[in-house]
Design goal:
Blueprint: H1 6-24, H2 29-34, H3 36-54, H4 58-63, H5 69-81, H6 88-113
Length: 114
């Protein structure tokens, strides 16, 4: 498999999203304010998830419209370019509500690969 294989990108998304979820386990929103390493790590992990999503070919994305590909890539752009104005309430909400759903959808895609 090459780096152009969409399943490689999906695996990158899953690995980094899982790591972000694991980092938030047992944590609270306030921890984003108090723990700089958590703050930086979550931002970076979500940047990677978004970058990997942006690299999934359009034809593959069309096969899986239940994945919000554009929104994920847009989040990456917002985190990178708006680094000085990240709303951590929104970031926490994404971690709690959206990332678990995203992971479930991506894991279903990977299940179809095998």
């Amino acid at each position: 498999m090459t780096r152009h294989d969409p399943f490689v990108r999906i695996r990158h998304m899953v690995e980094h999203a899982r790591e972000a979820v694991e980092m938030t386990h047992g944590r609270s929103r306030e921890d984003l304010n108090l723990d700089r390493q958590l703050n930086l790590a979550l931002v970076r992990l979500l940047e990677i998830v978004g970058e990997a999503a942006a690299r999934v070919p359009d034809d593959f994305r069309r096969q899986y419209p239940n994945v919000p590909w554009r929104d994920i890539a847009d989040l990456r752009n917002r985190l990178i370019h708006g680094y000085d104005s990240i709303n951590f309430d929104i970031l926490w909400q994404i971690m709690q509500q959206d990332i678990p759903v995203l992971l479930a959808n991506l894991e279903r895609i990977l299940d179809q690969e095998t």
